[in-house]
Amino acid sequence: MSKLCARRAALTQTAFAKTYHFPIGTVRDWEQGRRSPDAGSVVLLKMIQADPKGVERIIAKVA
Length: 63
Description:
Shape: globular
Strand content: under 5%
Mean pLDDT: 88
Radius of gyration: 11 Å
Structural class: mainly alpha
């Protein structure tokens, strides 16, 4: 799912992790199939998939 979100957001893996405040190792583990996102991460990934720029705006407000 994170790979799809990264493509939708048009970001590299590193930029995706930085933009959405995920540890890069976590994103790599998801994409390599070593780990699955927890429930909260799944919700955030779905939100990013639906509206990447909207999620970026929200993160900017609360960060």
